[in-house]
Specification:
Strand content: 15-25%
Helix content: 10-25%
Number of helices: 6
CATH architecture of the largest domain: 3-Layer(aba) Sandwich
Radius of gyration: 29 Å
Structural class: alpha/beta
CATH topology of the largest domain: Rossmann fold
Strand order of the largest sheet: 10-11-9-12-13-14
Order of helices and strands: HEEHEEEEEEEHEEEHEHEH
CATH class of the largest domain: Alpha Beta
Oligomer: single chain
Shape: rod-shaped
């Protein structure tokens, strides 16, 4: 499967509510009933179009393939004051984290809804109202109306859907830094792993179980310098980092001759790209991981870079996803950082409420 088919995070769709049914024009005609009268029923209401967040979905592929969705129209009214049946509603299911924008030129980029919780729904196209039958228009001075209302058309809208992944942990770093290998090690996710850059062409999600805790980790495709300006692959997926709570920044210690200055420069380069895209990303809690330590001949070679990063107030860990060394320590650090972040968010929310 083409990578663009396996992960779709943007789609433009047209939605239309069902048209209302027409009211009926009918006169009562029965034997032995000397005075008939209007008995045309009302038309049924059309169906609504609703978009619902579903945690079991991870891509907007279905919406990319089906660009138009129309709800069922209401049935026309009938004789003997029979009301037409209402049209059935249509539900479009999208991944949790989908933002819905109005694509109207006058309201473009206006957010219709941000579906950040499983089961959350929003009405995006209202149904047309059914027309009234001629029985509704009878009165003392107009006893035999020979007209009825037509049904109203359903609402037509064009929408842009944009997916931002929701994850507790975001794995970032240069291409081939070991993010996919780490995700495969700590979860059941099976991203593509190889010894060349840009192996991962789409974000991957994995559920990590630590004791009785379950957290979601996202492998964000490799960033490079200039990613925030459209260079490389990372610019397509930078927005998926926005909703992560904790960043785990991997530095590859095994792919070149170890120089602490080089590793620090790599760290700073990724931080610049994150900050250029959104300064808020620099405020996220961060863990720095020296990965691939199994390829380092002398562990003391890592002391200088670890000391330099630690002086900046960063928590630095050493890891080999291949041998498993340091994995448990990293998992514990992830849980601790996540708990601290949640506590900070709760405190901020409580302070704002007061």
């Amino acid at each position: 499967m083409n990578p663009d088919e396996s992960f779709i995070d943007e789609a433009t769709i047209s939605v239309r509510g069902g048209d209302g049914g027409d009211g009926c024009v009918s006169m009562r005609r029965e034997k032995f009933v000397p005075r008939g009268g209007p008995n045309g029923g009302d038309g049924g209401r059309g169906g609504d179009v609703v978009i619902t967040a579903d945690r079991n979905l991870s891509t907007l592929y279905d919406q990319r393939m089906r660009r138009k969705t129309c709800a069922e129209p209401g049935q026309n009214g009938g004789v003997s004051n029979r009301t037409g049946r209402n049209g059935r509603n249509v539900e479009i299911r999208v991944p949790v984290g989908t933002i819905i924008y109005d694509f109207d030129l006058e309201a473009e980029n206006e957010i219709v809804a941000d579906l950040s919780k499983d089961g959350e729904s929003v009405l995006v196209a209202r149904a047309g109202r059914g027309g009234r039958g001629n029985a509704r228009f009878a009165n003392a001075t107009r006893q035999t109306p020979d007209f009825a209302e037509p049904g109203q058309p359903g609402e037509l809208r064009k929408l842009r859907l944009s997916l931002k992944l929701l994850a507790d942990i975001g794995l970032v770093g240069f291409p081939n830094a070991g993010k996919s290998t780490l995700l495969a090690r700590i979860s059941e996710a099976r991203p593509r792993v190889a010894s060349y850059p840009f192996t991962t062409l789409t974000p991957s999600l994995g559920v990590v179980e630590i004791g009785d805790r379950r957290i979601v980790a996202a492998d964000i495709p490799g960033l490079i310098e200039g990613a925030s300006e459209g260079v490389g692959l990372g610019h397509r997926f930078l927005r998926h980092i926005e909703r992560t709570r904790v960043i785990v920044h991997l530095l590859d210690t095994g792919s070149f001759v170890l120089e602490s200055a080089d590793l620090v420069k790599r760290y700073e380069a990724i931080r610049r790209e994150l900050g250029s895209y959104s300064p808020d990303l620099l405020e996220l809690r961060e863990l720095v991981v020296l990965s691939k330590i199994d390829l380092v001949r002398d562990p003391r070679d890592l002391d200088a870079v670890e000391a330099e990063l630690s002086r900046r107030g960063l928590q630095v860990l050493r890891l080999s996803s291949v041998t498993g060394k340091g994995v448990d320590a990293l998992l514990n650090a992830m849980i601790q950082a996540l708990d601290q972040t949640i506590a900070d968010q709760d405190a901020s929310a409580a302070e704002g409420a007061s």
